[in-house]
Fold this protein.
Amino acid sequence: MILIFVSFPLAAHAINVQEHILDNGLKVLILEDHKAPTATFQIWYRIGSRYENIGKTGLSHLLEHMMFKGTKKHGPKTFSQAIQRIGGMDNAFTTSEYTGYFEFLASDRLSLPIELEADRMKNLVLTNEAVLSERDVVIEERRMRYEDDPQNLLFEEVVAAAFKNHPYRWPVIGWMSDLQTLNPEDLRQHYATYYAPNNAVVLVVGDVKPAEVLAKIRDAFGRIPAGPEIKAVAVAEDPQYGEKRVFLRKEAELPMVISVYKVPPIHQEDGPALDVLSNILSGGKSTRIYNSLVYEKQLAFSAWAGYEGMRRDPHLFYTGATAARGKSIEDVEKAMLAEIEKISKEPPTDQEIHKAKNQVEAAFIMEQDSFYMQAKLIGSFEMIGGWRLIDTYLEAIRKVTAGDVQRVAAKYLVPERRTTGVLIPLEAKK
Amino acid sequence: MMHGIHKVRLIRKEVARDIVFTGFPLKTCGNDRQKQSLRTVILGLDPGIQTAFNFNTKRTKALCVLILLFSILVCASTASAAAIADREILPNGLTLLHTEKKALPMIRVVVAIKAGSIAETAARAGLANLTADLLNEGTVRRSSKEISEAIEFVGGSLQTSGGADFVTATLSVLKKDMDLGFDLLSDILLNPVFSEQEVNRRRALIKGSIQQQREEPGIVASKAFMKELFDDHPYGWPTEGTEETLDAITRQDIVDFHKEYYAPNNAIMAVVGDISKDELRAMLDRYFGKWEKKQIQTRRLPELRPAAGPRVIKIQKEITQANIILGHSGIARENPDYYAVSVMNYILGGGGFASRLVDNIRDNKGLSYDVHSSFAPQKYGGTFSVGLQTKNQTAQIAIDEILREMNRIRTEPVSDRELDDAKAYLTGSFPLRVDSNSKIAGFLISIEYYDLGLNYIDNYRQYIEKVTKEEVQRVARKYLNTKDYLLVIVGDLKKTDLK
């Protein structure tokens, strides 16, 4: 078994990122890979819901939508059309930590996205009318994702209850009542504050010549002046004193339970062991939670655990399950807690440890099948502390022992760190 | 944690302008299959038919029902003029497509078996899916747990997936685990045992996911839409069946179904990755040498029923949005108008932010986050549908606008700019559809199943470039119907302003 693990061809497939920082502070990360004649160009801003304020939640995500509304030079509605016209796809995403924009296209056509992204970094036109109309779109998006989805709503409730003072408690999309009052001036300020070269990272992955693409990036972005230094938002969650519990009563089909535990992020000492722990509990059908709750006991239709470590600040380890027909959600919860207790008391087997590590290593190689996923990997580590953490992370995963896994389970998966939410389905009204 | 398999389990706290792995992809964890198919849909959509843009969890889930199975098949087309694969028919009748890609030490194999729900009867709806589902739940040599332990230990994956036209088994492994991978793949296809115990387990899980789907308005709407549209044709029933039909399926039904349809001469195998022709031959000799040709009976399918007059299905649910699907029957994949239809639909509502429906209903009126039109073509027919969600109060306005846009593209020629843009996107985005091993494997299955030929790469470009404004209007008149349509609304009906 050990031989299998050690013989991984990982070293040959490490990712060779080139890093450059322009005079205005823009960081550029390029990964050259010629396996297909395509490339992705991305720009990530270090702004997300973690940096928002009470009453103004959802601002970063609404601004992301507005970034497609046109600049002085390129009118409204032209951005995506221009990219699609050259056979490209474009889109964007917002998280608690960052807001990212990407284009994905044939690699000989990168000049256009570079020019358009540089343009909208500073020249966005935010009209009152467009803001109010797009706010309605985001409100519809929120209805679809949360108001009308009981499982997502339960998750939102649990996270909101788990954190008492850290901004992680509100959803990236924002609260409905905040969305209804966000105004154009809020957006203008948010844009002016956070959209600047010194608060952004450019990522290029694919069939490119780094020197050429860097020259283009320098041409397009180099003359944008650096913005004022952005104040770091240092926030820490205050201690929790006991288990918290929330209930959601809503028209739904399946009872569901979610428990979240406050844990350190991946780049802190216990992160890698927590990651291995999540794989041992829930790294496929052969692992503990599926095996016990779904396969053996047949208590749950679905059951899982996961570690949300890709954050700047401590976030959550979570477990969850839906009850199988005729089974009580209380029994499901008990069975889940029994699994947590078991791994807190006894270390996992060598076979389990090796499997979890093999999965991380294999996934690392397989993910390189996609340029987009490679850019996401580099970008998301960059946003929580630096892309070089990728190597640190893989090294640290290799060093995790069975004892470490048991230790972090016993240390973090405890009632004082736990918040549990239960979805109680209400019968449909006739 | 943030890689591959793990990622799928994560609660992604990410929202987007219109896409991406948001919200709660975990709900299917008891049922790996669905999880896998979500990814397949994301990777495989044909922008000409369904824009690759508007992915969001909800939508994607609804799409699973609508076009789950031909997700990989409609992807179609690539850029390179060099042959995309070697093709041969083996002595046992297996169609083999092989592309060697040495960039990464990994291999992807997709085996498609023409044993989808079109091969089952209405009374046993779900039989084809359940059979595929059970392949990796125990063989003569290995238990369900031994199979998952073996593949997961090396960080690989071995998944099966049901569908209307065909089912698939998909293997991903690192090159060093090639032997193990082919061994497992052959074992689950050739020697599944379908034990009573596993049948009952999987049946219960599938029934659980059917129950879960009732809480998702998009899926409720699309199931009602397909059922009404296709009536007693297999395309009308969900590939997973219903709770009643699943209960009617016996172990013997599954054994017989497998015996009848799982044969090399009824299958396509696509192999992509770091594996040479010699290595592949050795693998096939060693692990598939005993797979023998069989006589396959094809079932006669009922005729598709023509629509007459608008039909409206209203389903009450206490939710904040009306989930609307408006559409009718579409085209089969082999219809020569497929290309003109692709261009027309891109302009209407398949082209994301370049489309008229998004421009009108989302950008101008702020009525909906996700509005799209799609033609979903299968082997023996297809659907046309426009889907959106809007607050209950604005349901009627949204429906009126859908019909207005359908009518406009039928009665007025599209502009030169619209035509050129659509063609430029459809042809120019070719390379994106075949830039990874997994996309190439899906593409190979699709060109083979739909008989598009290995030169489809070049042909697609030519077919699209030939489309004229007149043709766009001709196919709009022919394949869009503003009178005999089917409208499904799932929402809080008393709050809507429906006429």
